[in-house]
Structures are given as structure tokens and as C-alpha cells.
Amino acid sequence: MADIEDKSLTLSAGADGLEDDERLWQTFMYMRDPSNSNEADSNHYALPLSISPVVDPVTMKVIRIDYLPTGKDNTVREPEPWKPKPANEYIPEAQDLRQDLKPLNVVQPEGVSFSVTQEGTSHVIEWQKWSFRVGFNLREGMVLYDVRYEGRSLFYRLSLSDMNIPYADPRHPFHKKSAFDLGDAGAGIMANDLGKNIVTIFCCWKSADIYQYVYYLPEEAFGLQIKPLCT
After folding, report:
1. In Å, what is the CA distance from 200 to each residue of 142, 144, 193, 214, 222?
2. Are the beta carbons of 150 and 131 closer than 8 angstroms?
3. For the chain, which ranges sit under pLDDT 70?
4. 28-71 residue pLDDT tens
5. Using CB atoms within 10 A of its CB, is residue 176 exposed (0-12), middle (13-18) or buried (19+)?
6. Which of 13, 126, 211, 212 could form a disulfide with 229 if both were Cys (CB 3.0 to 4.6 A apart)?
7. Are strands 114-119 and 6-12 parallel, antiparallel or unpaired?
8. What is the Cα–Cα distance from 137 to 218, expressed in whole angstroms?
9. Are 146 and 119 in contact (CB under 8 A)?
10. Which domains does the chain possess?
11. Sheet of 25-31: strands edge to edge?
């Protein structure tokens, strides 16, 4: 078992009224595929474990361990010895990809239809009859300011308040598996560099220079620096 590495997903489950009146953390455990443990981009959710520790965020202590239903019904069982099973990987290296597709090139030979002008600490984007300022912060990610159409003011500020992702399994304790992507994690601090992503090829390469201005955090922000989406 020394070669098996586990990962966890901790969610601020709060209280659901079922004999718990305090804010708690429900932790879902996942095992990294032992046969592919060195792959940093492997599917961390491919091999879920059947135990879920419940943590008191004040004392940082595990107050109980829930056993999870792993089949088609609500039946729960105590953990059993690990039986190797194939992982469900999404990385291209683990896929048998089709080879009969012709290239798809999305290009703008005459350049882009928008302009980006730096004004102070933000950038002004102008596209056809639209204009707006683009900002960025750790919690909300990209924020739009002073949105105008033909010079007429429409919005002073536009951003995501939060984004809740329920995983739609009503069985206990899976019903607590719901993430607030902005409030719990932060859309800005969790932004990814898509420099090597296929989205860059279709959406950014040769055309969408705007992303260089949008998804950027100063180096002094929590000691981190997020690279632009398109480089």
C-alpha cells in the first residue's frame, strides 16, 4: 500500500438538519491510479474511496467517518481490500483517438475586429458598437466595468457572484457534495494557463490577443503569478 497515493475533495457542507447543527467539512477521498501514479494530469476522480471523513473546521479534528454507498442503491459497506480496476483517464495519451479528421483552422487573416487600449490599471476593449473595461481579481476572476453600447451606459460592473455545482446524487452524504467555485475556491486564483490546451489553438492562436490582458495576476498576489491564457 506504500505506493498508493490518495487525494481528497473537501466541501463546506454546513448543516443539513440531520442531527448536525454546526458547520462541518465533508471530505470525499480519491485514490491516484497506482499504475499511473507519476502522471500529474491523471483523473483524480477516477477511483473514489468508500469512506468520507467529517471534519470540524474549528478544532480541525475528524469527528466521524461516513461510509458511502458505492453501488446502485443506498447500501453501504465497510472498506474492503483494494482490487485493481482500470482508471478512467481523460488525457490524450490514454485515449485511442480517431485519426480520420481533417484539420480545422480558425484564423482571421486581416486581424481581429476588436481593439485593446490600456488606460490606467485596466484595459478598454472596443468591438463594433460595444466598449467595456476588463479587470481581474482573485475571487471573481474576470470583471467587466463600464459596459457601453454606442456610448450609452448599460452596466457599471458585471461579474459572477458565485457558481454552485451540485452533483445531483441524493444519497447521504453525496447530497452535500456541492461546490461554490468562487466563494470556496476563487475563480481568479484557480485560473489555469491554457497555453498548451487545444482551446488555445482554436480560440487564441493568431487572433485573440485580448486574453493576454485579461487573465493575469500580479506576482505579489499571494506570492503567485498566473500566466495569460494565450501566449
Report:
1. 18, 22, 10, 14, 27
2. no
3. 1-21, 192-231
4. 888 888 877 788 888 888 888 899 998 888 899 998 899 999 88
5. buried
6. 211
7. unpaired
8. 10
9. no
10. 6-90 (3.10.450.40)
11. 6-12, 25-31, 51-56, 61-67
